[in-house]
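Input/output pair, single chain:
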Amino acid sequence: MDGQKMSKPDWLQRGAFVKVQHWYGVVEDVAVSESRVMVLIKSPKGVWRNQRDASEWLEYIEGQIIPADPAALEQDVDAHAERIQKMLTELNSFRQLLQSGK
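Output:
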């Protein structure tokens, strides 16, 4: 960074709703060093993928992590809830198949 210390935008703080490319989340923590800003983001995608505590650390790159509209985040939660419900339905159907011996 040409000797310049990294700084984070004012909006990037714990509790902020963010969009990262095509998914949404909530900032849980921000860490700033001399060379980078790291952001811990919890997301519905993380829950759906069964990641440990559904959070992941990402390097902040301007334009790749942006503020998100709360309604868009809510839609993302709903979409992932539907996916998880579909998976549960399929798993229960599979269980019934096994229990019936077929």
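The first helix runs from residue 44 to 48. The two ends are 63 Å apart (CA to CA).
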